[in-house]
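Hi U.,

Before I forget, here's the chain from the pilot set. I'm dumping it here mostly so it's searchable later in email.
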Amino acid sequence: MTVNVRPIVASDEQAWLRLFRDYIAFYKASVPEDVIAETWRRLLGQEDNMMALIARDDEGQALGIAALVFHRSTWSLTWYCYLEDLFVTTEARGQGVGRALIEATYAEADRRGVNRTYWATQDDNATARKLYDRVGQLTEFVQYRR
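Structure:
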């Protein structure tokens, strides 16, 4: 299978919505529909330093998505890239889709001169962490939130 990754376009809306909702369900979370609609609008328009990628196979089947947020840092003169959302369909896992989305994220970050790309996942997300251990470096930081 060939994986094709590119920025989202308007015609990706239904595929993105399905995948984003599946992503939310994977994490047993809930996001209000108005937030999902606004997120799609911002990602499509690449507003607020945000953009999204979609992975499709040769037949056009949507396999995965990634949402990127670019921001400044107090520790760098350049920007950072936060890979906020990364989701691959159950059927496509283990077939290089996640890696392709991360590599496309790295390419976009490099194109923009970003010096750090980072992401988070749940501690027990063992399947994804096998990939993350190969394409990134685990840090010692613990996340807190309010």
